Backbone:
């Protein structure tokens, strides 16, 4: 499988966009329009997601938009790639990738994604369906981190 590489999370790449980087950039964006614009810009950093991986095998249920999620365990760290047919969801996926990509199972279990969204002031801007979709993705990542170890 050709695993899509991206700059979000813990990475060996020099151009990695870390959780702290995203937190700083999002906290300085003004209102939902500024935050949304930043998320759409960040989504452009995601590589082309292979068509053959856009299958039901990798589709996340519980999301209003189509979302595909790949998770691989390498050297006790989880590599995560994701894509969506929605620009704003694709932008929100960059947050998930920054939070969980390159982390250990223990780090994945300990990170409270909802608390981080609240800290950034993003939670109040999310519709119920987007919030539920993000929760479904995070749940799937956490479940896989338990089952793959």
Residues:
């Amino acid at each position: 499988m050709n695993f899509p590489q991206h700059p979000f999370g813990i990475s060996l790449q020099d151009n990695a966009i870390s959780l702290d980087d995203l937190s700083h950039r999002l906290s300085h964006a003004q209102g939902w329009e500024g935050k949304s614009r930043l998320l759409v810009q960040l989504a452009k950093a995601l590589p082309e997601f292979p068509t053959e991986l856009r299958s039901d095998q990798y589709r996340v249920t519980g999301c209003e938009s189509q979302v595909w999620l790949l998770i691989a365990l390498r050297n006790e760290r989880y590599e995560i790639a994701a894509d969506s047919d929605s620009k704003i969801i694709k932008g929100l996926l960059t947050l998930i990738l920054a939070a969980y990509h390159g982390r250990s199972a223990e780090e994945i279990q300990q990170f409270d994604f909802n608390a981080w969204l609240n800290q950034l002031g993003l939670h109040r801007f999310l519709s119920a369906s987007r919030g539920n979709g993000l929760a479904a993705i995070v749940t799937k990542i956490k479940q896989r981190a338990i089952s793959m170890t």
Observations:
- The chain has a mean pLDDT of 88.
